[in-house]
Write a structure and sequence with these properties.
This protein is an alpha/beta fold. Helices cover 23% and strands 10% of the residues.
Length: 172
C-alpha cells in the first residue's frame, strides 16, 4: 500500500497536471508503482502518460472513465502481462508499451479498431497474433527488440504496412 504522503503527492500532481489541460494527464517519471483510483477517477481524459515508472500491473478500477482515452503510454515500466482492460478502450488510437516485460499479445487485440500506432518494442513477445493485422487503420507497428520473436515477423510487419500504404495511395 502507498503511504499517505506519497498518495497525497500523487493527488497534488494529478490536480496540477489537470489544471494545465483537463484532457491530458502526464505522470511520466512520477515513481508510481500502481494505478491509483485518483487516476481512473478523471473524466474526459484523452491522453494518459504513465511512462517511466515502476508499474508492474495495469488495472483501471473505474474503467468507464478510461473509455475516452485515445493515447496511452505505459512504456518503460515493469509490466509482465498485457493489460486485458486495455482491450475495452475502444477509442484508443496511439498505444505505447515499449520496454516492458510483456511476452504475449492477446488474440482479441483487434477489438482496438481505431488503433493507428502501436509500439511493442523491447518486450519479451514470442509471437504476434494474426488478429493484429486485421486492424484496418493500423499504420505504424514497432516490434524491434523482442529477442524471443522470430525474425520473419519483422518482414511480415514491413509487408503488411507497405501493402496498407500502397492501398492508401491507390485509393482501394
Amino acid at each position: 500500500k502507498m503511504s499517505k504522503i506519497i498518495k497525497q503527492k500523487l493527488k497534488n500532481t494529478i490536480r496540477a497536471e489537470l489544471e494545465k489541460n483537463a484532457r491530458v494527464l502526464n505522470l511520466q517519471s512520477s515513481g508510481i508503482m500502481q494505478i491509483e483510483d485518483e487516476i481512473t477517477n478523471v473524466k474526459g481524459l484523452e491522453t494518459l502518460n504513465l511512462s517511466q515508472n515502476r508499474i508492474v500491473n495495469v488495472h483501471f478500477k473505474n474503467m468507464g472513465n478510461m473509455m475516452s482515452v485515445t493515447e496511452l503510454d505505459i512504456s518503460y515500466n515493469m509490466i509482465e502481462k498485457f493489460p486485458e482492460q486495455i482491450l475495452e478502450m475502444a477509442n484508443l488510437v496511439n498505444f505505447n508499451m515499449e520496454k516492458n516485460l510483456i511476452d504475449k499479445i492477446p488474440m482479441e487485440i483487434n477489438k482496438l479498431r481505431k488503433l493507428k500506432t502501436m509500439n511493442i518494442s523491447s518486450n519479451k513477445i514470442r509471437e504476434i497474433p494474426k488478429n493484429l493485422f486485421k486492424i484496418n487503420g493500423l499504420k505504424q507497428l514497432k516490434i524491434n527488440g523482442n529477442i524471443h520473436l522470430p525474425s520473419h515477423y519483422t518482414e511480415l510487419v514491413k509487408v503488411f504496412l507497405f501493402k496498407k500504404e500502397e492501398m492508401n495511395l491507390t485509393g482501394t
